[in-house]
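Problem: given the chain below (287 residues), write out its structure.
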Amino acid sequence: MSFAALPEFLPLALRETLLDAVRLETHYQQSTTVWHAWGRTEHPTVVLLHGGSGSWTHWVRNIAVLRDAGWRVLVPDLPGFGDSDLPEGCTDTTDLPPHLHQGLQQLQPSGPVSLVGFSFGGMTAALWLAAHPEDAQALVLVGAPGMGLAQSQRTVLKGWRHLPTPEAQREVHRHNLLALMLQHEASLDPLALALHAANVQRDRMPRRRLSSTDIVARTLPKVQARVSAIYGENDALYGPRLPEVQAAMEQLAPRWGQWNTVPGVGHWVPYEATERFNVALIQVLRA
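Solution.
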């Protein structure tokens, strides 16, 4: 255990709220998963799983609020992303639950545990709890794909690795963030661009395909935890089909909690509507 080194691109005020971050490592099958932790170890635990091509920094605007509200906050870099190893043979979300389950067992949280998964992390969290129902009592899906209800016109993202200059790459990152993650150009501030650019550089699982299937819909009936969901009204994954997603989840989850639609924002709702998302998440976790 050691204090975590925070990214240089974090604004000073945000950095100061996260300075108590502790870096933890867990191990499974010769692979290391890196976790960041905040809060008192005796408090109830909330585990935040980031989205695809991301890292723990997807949650930089949410961690301190949860810690200050009384949770221990654990945020791993999912295997294959950020500082964590890419396990041998790991190609998609189905390969991640054993590493996360073993990691949580090694960290030995006290009290109840809740999982919150954003996008790719939501798929991962659902699969994790279907395989290991003892690990958490609540699951919150945030903008999770895998419901088999995607729009007919897919969001087109541009490649950037072949581009010769950082400036050209940044322009593509801006396009991709506005195409998939954020609804409003004003939401694409320097922090969003910097952390996205840093995260995609360390994505070592580029060919994952399960997000376009119905894997979450097929998994939800096996999840014993209480399931809730928070989505941006204009989530690029579903568009006008978002009410169908809500109806399907309410029908499929054996223990349904609550649905929250955050008006006027896109897929990355924890970042684009930070205050409204934090209020909704704390309400769900306290239910």
